[in-house]
Design goal:
Elements (H helix, E strand, L loop, with lengths): L1 E5 L6 H9 L4 H14 L20 E7 L4 E8 L5 H11 L4 E3 H10 L10 H14 L2 H6 L6 H7 L9 E7 L3 E8 L20 E4 L3 E7 L1 H7 L1 H10 L4 H14 L8 E7 L4 E6 L6 E6 L6 E4 L1 E2 L1
Parallel strand pairs: 3-4, 10-13
Antiparallel strand pairs: 1-5, 1-11, 2-3, 2-6, 5-6, 7-8, 8-9, 9-10, 11-12
Helix pairs in contact: 1-2, 2-3, 9-10
Bound molecules: glycine.
Length: about 300
C-alpha cells in the first residue's frame, strides 16, 4: 500500500494511514483524512482555513475517483459546506451523475445530512475586505458588490495565495489505485470559478491498471492540458511513470498565453512507484509519503521539472 499527499494534507495523514492500516476502503480512508484538512484553520487553501471569492463567499470544490471502476464524484462552487470531499464521494456512491455544482450541490448536501455552515473565518473576511479597500475607490466600495467584478480580478489576484488544494492518492495491488481532492480554490476568484480539483482528467484521474495523478496550484493550466488524464493515458500507452510526467510537463511548458503559473504533479503507477514534480512553483515543494513498510509517513522534497 502506498499513500502520497501534498504537504498541506498534513492534518489528515494520521487518520488516513490508520484507516488504511486497518484495511478500510481506500477512498473512504482518504475522504476521512481530507475531512480533517477541511476542518483545520491553519491550512489556508482548503475548507475552513481557505480564502473566499471576490464577494467574500466561500465556494469549495472537490473530487474523488475510484480507479478500479473509474467511478467519479465531484462537486464545484459549493456554498456553506465544509466537508466537500465527502459530498463528492456521496455523489459518486448515490447518484447517476458525476458532478454537482452550486445550489444543487448544497441541496444534495442537506439531503444527506451535511449541515449548512458559515465557513468564512472572521480573519479571512477581514483580509478580503482590506484587499478590496486597497483597490476600490470609496464611491465604488460604498456600492459594493454592485460593481463590475471582472476588472477587479487582475488587481486583486494575489499570486501568494494562488496556492491551493489538498490531493491524496493511494495505490495497492489488491485495493486498487484511487484519487481524492478538496480545495477552496483561487483566493478572490470570480464567483462560480471552478478550478481543476473537481475536474476529472485535469486535477485528478485514476485507473487501477496503470496509475493515478493529481495536481495542485494553477488549475487554469491543467484544465487546458488535461494533465492528470494525460499522465495515466501515457502509462496505458506504455510510457514509464517518469516519461508520462515529463510528457505532461512538456504540455504545460508549451502554453504561452492565458494565466500561467506553477503546477505540482503527484503521480503513482501500478508498480508501486511514485513521483511528485514541481513545475514552476517557487520555493521548496514537499509531499507526504507512506508505504506499509514504513513505520511513519515521511515528508519528502518534490523534484523540480
Ligand atoms: N488547483 C486548484 C485550483 O486551481 O483551484
Amino acid at each position: 500500500m502506498l499513500l502520497i499527499a501534498n504537504a498541506e494534507g498534513w492534518p489528515g495523514i494520521p487518520t488516513t494511514v490508520d484507516l488504511l492500516r486497518s484495511g478500510a476502503d481506500s477512498l473512504a480512508a482518504m475522504v476521512a483524512g481530507i475531512g480533517e484538512v477541511e476542518a483545520e484553520t491553519k491550512v489556508r487553501s482548503v475548507g475552513r482555513g481557505g480564502w473566499p471569492n471576490m464577494l467574500g463567499e466561500m465556494e469549495f470544490d472537490a473530487g474523488v475517483m475510484d480507479g478500479t471502476t473509474r467511478a467519479v464524484g465531484a462537486v464545484g462552487a459549493v456554498p456553506h459546506t465544509l466537508h466537500v470531499a465527502r459530498l463528492a464521494h456521496e455523489v459518486m456512491k448515490r447518484l447517476p451523475h458525476v458532478m454537482l455544482t452550486g445550489a444543487g450541490a448544497r441541496r444534495f448536501a442537506s439531503e444527506i445530512g451535511l449541515p449548512q455552515e458559515d465557513v468564512l473565518l472572521p480573519d479571512s473576511r477581514r483580509v478580503w475586505w482590506e484587499r478590496l479597500e486597497q483597490e476600490l475607490p470609496p464611491e465604488a466600495l460604498g456600492r459594493f458588490p454592485d460593481v463590475p467584478l471582472a476588472p477587479l480580478l487582475k488587481a486583486i489576484t494575489d499570486p501568494e495565495r494562488v496556492r491551493d488544494t489538498t490531493v491524496y492518492l493511494t495505490a495497492d495491488p489488491r485495493r486498487g489505485i484511487h484519487a481524492a481532492t478538496s480545495t477552496s480554490g483561487w483566493a478572490w476568484k470570480y464567483p462560480g470559478r471552478l478550478g481543476d480539483s473537481p475536474i476529472p482528467g485535469a486535477g485528478f484521474y485514476a485507473d487501477s491498471r496503470y496509475g493515478a495523478a493529481a495536481c495542485t496550484h494553477t488549475g487554469e493550466m491543467t484544465m487546458r492540458c488535461a494533465t492528470a488524464r494525460t499522465i495515466v493515458l501515457a502509462m496505458k500507452l506504455g510510457h514509464t511513470l517518469r516519461d508520462a510526467v515529463a510528457l505532461a510537463v512538456e504540455e504545460l511548458r508549451e502554453l504561452r498565453e492565458g494565466f500561467l503559473g506553477g503546477v505540482v504533479i503527484h503521480a503513482v503507477d501500478a508498480h508501486g512507484q511514485h513521483q511528485v514534480t514541481n513545475f514552476r512553483c517557487e520555493g521548496e515543494i514537499r509531499y507526504w509519503l507512506w508505504e506499509d513498510s514504513m513505520p511513519e509517513p515521511e515528508l519528502r522534497a518534490a523534484q523540480t521539472a
